[in-house]
Write a structure and sequence with these properties.
CATH architecture of the largest domain: 4-Layer Sandwich
CATH class of the largest domain: Alpha Beta
CATH superfamily of the largest domain: Aminohydrolase, N-terminal nucleophile (Ntn) domain
CATH topology of the largest domain: Glutamine Phosphoribosylpyrophosphate, subunit 1, domain 1
Helix content: 25-40%
Amino acid sequence: MRDVTELDSALHEECGVFGICDSTGTTDMVSAVYSALYALQHRGQESCGIALNVDGVLNGYRDLGLVSEVFTPRVLEDLPQGARMATGHVRYATSGRRTRSNAQPMILHHCKGAMALAHNGNLTNAPELRHKLEMKGSIFHGTSDTEVIGYLLTQYRLTSPDIETAVCKTMDIIKGAYSLVIMTNTKLIAVRDPNGFRPLCIGKLKEGNGWVFASESCALDAVGAEFVRDVEPGEIVAADANGLRSIRTHCNTAPHTMCVFEYVYFARPDSVIDGTSVHEARLRAGAFLAKEHPVDADVVIGVPDSGLDAALGYAIESGIPYGHGFIKNKYVGRTFIQGSQAQRESSVRIKLNVIRSTVEGKRVVLIDDSIVRGTTSARIIDLLREAGATEVHFRVSAPPFGHPCYFGTDIPDEKLLVATGHSVEEINEILGADSLGYLSVEHVQQLCPNSKCQYCTGCFTGHYPVDPPKETMDIVYDRPLSEQQTGKD
């Protein structure tokens, strides 16, 4: 879900979804969802929300901001108590505007019953579907593709015996990436697209009689749930008072192409996704980097936070000592919210401070997970030289970004990517490093030897497992009214 006006030199997370149910009523649902959203905060820092099911009545609260900003003690106290089912969401927009109307979970009321919907991913045919729905009289309040899914689900519920059938019919039509948590009056449902682009897992509460669905296993840990398994690509998993059941109609209908950047950057290191520890995958990335791009140096350091594990892997493989090169100020907001480039560059200095004793007079290997525009990377290299580093050799634990992502990662247009139209040598000159080395596509596909899936590497290669969209929701609704479709099919 992306807003085109907020692109900068850093990658942004997509979203995080969470759902929990406990038929015994012993779980404090408000506290559980709040804790889970804290654990998933890294996946979305733009907006968040909680929806609760109390005796079949759905209510909730959502707004722009971090979990701690939105859910103040007063807001938490005002949320309905006694829920036996709940869902939550953290969002960064990769499709649709940064407005409260696009915050999730979205609660939809219908004659067939209320429904709360939380979505991680990006539909590639959302504009087309939205236009068809509008021509049938649907009225949209926001600009996200999640609302399209909601309308389709309510439409199919009219002619379906149950919500699971409506989900199946919706999956027949929507294309792209989606990991969903859907809460109705009586059921909690998890859905993963047939390609399995985005992660989604199942947990069981250690106390009580409940089930948990979450984008990452770290959220299960936060609520005291045991990991059971991942939701399989194309699978629908429903939980209610009768337990857990699975519908596999859409399983094995497409190749499993997990987004490899979940392992490189997005997921928390303590999560396990599709059978592979994220921490171990990043250690392997660093080891591969050391083999591909060795260099004589005195210390290896990583850019906090997602570059640290890869830096440790590089140090272990190369035999070069690992050092703590930066202190990260955890109380500074993300750089992308700054209004100007000068403000963003100033924020880098405030957010990261070099530990001079680690780098002064030394040849430094600097490890980071990616380079997008290159402005932030160049500034970090400057900070190291100002602190006395004699050489800075930059190593990146992912291949160069040459293409946009259409499946829920905020990688901007090709013209905004530093790797577009530049060789590695030219990029190195732009950044001001002594040398530059990227992880190869071949090795990035080998980060998870225990996983039984392939990986989407479209942002590196331009080859996508699903056809890219012809237009996005933002482009369609940024056009002048005269250029929009106004009723002619």
